[in-house]
From TrEMBL:
<dbReference type="InterPro" id="IPR036388">
    <property type="entry name" value="WH-like_DNA-bd_sf"/>
</dbReference>
<dbReference type="InterPro" id="IPR048846">
    <property type="entry name" value="PaaX-like_central"/>
</dbReference>
<dbReference type="InterPro" id="IPR011965">
    <property type="entry name" value="PaaX_trns_reg"/>
</dbReference>
<protein>
    <submittedName>
        <fullName>Phenylacetic acid-responsive transcriptional repressor</fullName>
    </submittedName>
</protein>
<feature type="domain" description="Transcriptional repressor PaaX-like N-terminal">
    <location>
        <begin position="20"/>
        <end position="87"/>
    </location>
</feature>
<feature type="domain" description="Transcriptional repressor PaaX-like central Cas2-like">
    <location>
        <begin position="110"/>
        <end position="168"/>
    </location>
</feature>
<dbReference type="InterPro" id="IPR036390">
    <property type="entry name" value="WH_DNA-bd_sf"/>
</dbReference>
<dbReference type="Pfam" id="PF20803">
    <property type="entry name" value="PaaX_M"/>
</dbReference>
<dbReference type="GO" id="GO:0006351">
    <property type="term" value="P:DNA-templated transcription"/>
</dbReference>
<dbReference type="InterPro" id="IPR012906">
    <property type="entry name" value="PaaX-like_N"/>
</dbReference>
<dbReference type="Pfam" id="PF07848">
    <property type="entry name" value="PaaX"/>
</dbReference>
């Protein structure tokens, strides 16, 4: 992550509950390490955590190496023990993601408020197009047509596109705070910009999964997996207006389930992390 965009904290999964090792580690760091005044973490703590989540040691070590190369982690050595700490870049990104993660109502926006964004990226710049689309998706935008995106609520577009790696796009983007005029079929618009059945299914999966006993052992692994699942859901649902989505839209239930499970797991997970640090030399 030569420049880690916030959306990569909640990168899409191949399937429900399937997360890349980097996503799991970012979930762990975001929940338990950022602003917690902890010393660098011995590699065995991170390797044990990933092992509990089904990641092989080889894949875990490769992930730590890659995250260090991309500027997410710094690596130190104490005797024969490797230690890892977050870089300022990673801390900044995780703090910004935490604003959505901890919001009491992350799926709600003022009724009738929308943000329209138009931009142009040359077809030859596919790498840039991909970064823009990923950044916009994390920020809550859905595509109406090529180059025209819409998001519920009022989005700080400067913050979304203002990073140095998107400087070329920021100068070619125009954003507007918008409201539907009479006669606009908002229901059709929402269903054109987002796969609403898939968003509902993501909520249903999250609620069903975390209303049952956790699928991994240990509070540290459980909290990490909960965070990764929650970030994936936040990426999937930008806060679509419930009034346009049929009866019993499940977003509020998802928020309740997340907060209840997190509050139940966090004390034991923090204690488990402290035990691991003491055991391995801190």
């Amino acid at each position: 992550m030569s420049a880690l965009p916030a959306e990569e904290v909640g990168e899409p999964s191949a399937s429900h509950g399937a997360h890349r090792p980097q996503s799991l580690l970012l979930s762990f760091f975001g929940a338990l390490v950022v602003d917690a005044d902890l010393p660098p973490l011995p590699s065995v703590t991170l390797l044990d955590l990933l092992a509990d989540l089904g990641v092989t040691e080889a894949a875990a070590r490769a992930t730590l190496k890659r995250m260090t190369q991309r500027g997410l982690l710094t690596r130190g050595q104490v005797g024969r023990t490797a230690e890892y700490a977050l870089t300022p870049l990673a801390e900044d990104v995780l703090r910004r993601a935490t604003e959505r993660v901890t919001s009491p109502a992350p799926f709600e926006h003022p009724e009738g408020e929308w943000t329209l964004l138009s931009y142009s990226v040359p077809e030859s710049r596919r790498d840039l197009r991909h970064r823009v689309r990923s950044r916009l998706t994390w920020a809550g935008f859905g595509g109406l047509r090529d180059g025209l995106w819409i998001a519920p609520g009022t989005v700080d577009v400067v913050a979304v596109l203002g990073r140095s790696d998107l400087a070329d796009v920021a100068g070619l983007a125009d954003a507007f705070a918008a409201r539907p005029l009479p006669g606009t079929d908002v229901h059709r618009l929402v269903h054109r910009a987002w796969d609403v059945p898939a968003v509902r299914a993501a909520h249903t999966w999250f609620i069903d999964t975390w209303s049952r006993p956790p699928r991994v052992a240990g509070s540290l692994a459980q909290l990490t997996l909960l965070g990764a699942d929650w970030l994936s859901l936040l990426r999937t649902d930008p806060g679509l207006p419930a009034s346009q989505l049929g009866p019993a839209w499940p977003a509020a239930v998802s928020s309740t389930v997340y907060r209840r499970v997190f509050d139940g797991l966090a004390p034991a997970a923090r204690a488990a992390l402290e035990r691991s640090l003491r055991t391995h030399g801190h």
